[in-house]
Amino acid sequence: MMTRVNSQFEKTRKVSGPRSLQPSQWGMLCPSDTPEGEACGLVKNLALMTHITTEVDEEPVIRLAYNAGVEDIRLLGGETINNPKVFMVFINGNILGVTIAYRRLVEVFRMMRRRGLIGAFVSIHTSFTQRCVYIHTDGGRLCRPYMIVQGGRPLVQQEHIEQMKLGLRKFDDFLHDGLIEYLDVNEENDSFIAYQERDIDPEKTTHLEIEPFTLLGVCAGLVPYPHHNQSPRNTYQCAMGKQAMGIIGYNQKNRIDTLMYNIVYPQSPMVRSRTIELTNFDKLPAGQNATVAVMSYSGYDIEDALILNKASIDRGYGRCLVYKNSKCTIKRYSNQTFDRIMGPMKDALTGKIITKHECLDTDGIVSPGERLTCKQTMVNKEMPAVKSNNPIEQKESGQQPIAYSAVPITYKGTEPSYAERVLVSTNNEEEFLVKILLRQTRRPEIGDKFSSRHGQKGVTGLIVEQEDLPFNDYGMSPDMVMNPHGFPSRMTVGKTLELLGSKAGVLEGKFHYGTAFGGSKCQDLQDELFKHGFNYLGKDVFYSGITGEPLEMYIYSGPVYYQKLKHMVQDKMHARARGPRAVLTRQPTQGRSREGGLRLGEMERDCLISYGASMLIMERLMISSDAFDVDVCNVCGRLAYSSWCHNCRSSASVSKISMPYACKLLFQELTSMNIVPRLKLQNY
């Protein structure tokens, strides 16, 4: 189900009103799950138990309203309608009638809804300022469930919870039995809702929150101890949690996606939340438990950089599979010609298959399991050459055999890949479709991005041999070293609690809970650590891996659940010495995918001007970009061609100079608009 709410407000306007979480949206929309940047606050996400209503037929509701004492407004006079005791009744914005006994009307509707005689999402509320009763059965309203409180006690008792644990009762049964009900935003204003059971007022309270953590959405609910973090950190995690690699489904081996990232050894987090269990995140996890030492090691961990243990990477930490899709279609054309796939080409002299066709099977398509390197052919496709439309040429050619030109589908990656699977099928136009699933196995390397569940992101700064890393009394070295300067300003106390909970859980052999507004208490975690002979603060004595001497300070260390994000340096690194150029300007193309150049922009040019580096400017902006030799007439100053000035009709005084091709193009475009630029040359 889609859980995103998108505002149509203009993103470029810097107005805080539409971006803020309105009081009426409390509990309906997640306060943390919103993107950063210009869409901040305009794209919101539903909270965990929010439901969007669908339209209900209003005819039975209208009949019920008339039976409950609503009178048709057409049968009444003005004096009756203007009576202060008379309330007007509306249904979905249309006038239905008037009533004097508005309390009885509201009670009847709520009783019928709780007994299941009308739709669970029909709402009714009273406005005393307008003397109106509003009934809503339309779709698109946000609702969430609450426990009903009567006589100061919630109707949901412990026996009901036990039945649900045994599988004898489901959530819908609570709804049908009238123990809980859905309220929309308008009806919430008519209710007195207690936050927790101890807050119930016997005289006033009408409803009770099911669980406080349901105020958050799915993404924010995956964060352990979010109520101990600074709020922007939870927002960052909501964005980064969607970029984490994991398992996408039990059918992931049977599908061919355009791009799919899978982590090879996913683990369930040691510190969970109730949201994790409700959404089955523990069955399809997206991360690994890394033993983290919070200390500074060398200068390669500044600015959030992480130091990884090489032995941990060898054992599979952070290893991922990247699946990509390559496809081609075999078309049939209107002139009775069609594309074809040819078998691998053989060398005329040796009789062996040529190098770029080594991976092809006899049918001309790559064999599953073959290792593909850059520019190797995956499908040896040929298409018919385009014929001339000239009838004389067609008549002369007669019934000659169709000429084919090679248009092979080649592998364009810089690193080798393996052909995982080949699918031959048809598409909607009944054309043959060949899909190839490519697989790459990647180890973490310097520049790859990792993140904990608290918005603490960082790239790998150094990969160190295990024997050089510090070790504790048990001889255990950390998988990851994190700089302690990441804690004071970010104030992610939830991360320190997660480390304590994970460490205690590993020793005790159980999962701990970091559910929002609750979870395992810090004192209980410290007691478990102390019981197993560890420092209750989570700190250990570490020894230098280089000298063997004890480190001067205790080191805070333990397991933390880390996510490997999809941002990998292999997909981003780019450099160019030579490559393709744009047709029009003859300047280098733009972008990594087109092997483009790296642009020296206006600001960089200004810096070089301020240094007076004129020759460097010429080298960057002309010689290495689009230098072009042109002939210039010394008499009229216009461009000449082949040492001949067409304006002066002479070749007596023509010089050859170099200029950027874009400059030459500008002169020609200005000339086409009757603006004639003239060059005045002199020796220097």
From TrEMBL:
It is found in: Nucleus. GO terms for cellular component: DNA-directed RNA polymerase complex; nucleus. Pfam families: RNA_pol_Rpb2_3, RNA_pol_Rpb2_4, RNA_pol_Rpb2_5, RNA_pol_Rpb2_6, RNA_pol_Rpb2_7. Its main location: nucleus. PROSITE patterns: RNA_POL_BETA (PS01166). CDD domains: RNA_pol_B_RPB2 (cd00653). One of its GO terms (biological process) is transcription by RNA polymerase III. It is an enzyme of class 2 (transferase). InterPro entries: DNA-dir_RNA_pol_su2, DNA-dir_RNAP_su2_dom, DNA-dir_RNAP_su2_hyb_sf, RNA_pol_bsu_CS, RNA_pol_Rpb2_3, RNA_pol_Rpb2_4, RNA_pol_Rpb2_5, RNA_pol_Rpb2_7. Residues 219-594 form the DNA-directed RNA polymerase subunit 2 hybrid-binding domain. Its EC number is 2.7.7.6. Keywords: DNA-directed RNA polymerase, Metal-binding, Nucleotidyltransferase, Nucleus, Transcription, Transferase, Zinc. One of its GO terms (molecular function) is metal ion binding. Coiled coil: none annotated. Residues 3-52, 89-150, 171-206, 596-681 form the RNA polymerase Rpb2 domain. Residues 1-27 are annotated as: Disordered. DNA-dependent RNA polymerase catalyzes the transcription of DNA into RNA using the four ribonucleoside triphosphates as substrates. Belongs to the RNA polymerase beta chain family. PANTHER family: DNA-DIRECTED RNA POLYMERASE I SUBUNIT 2. This is DNA-directed RNA polymerase subunit beta. It comes from Anopheles maculatus.
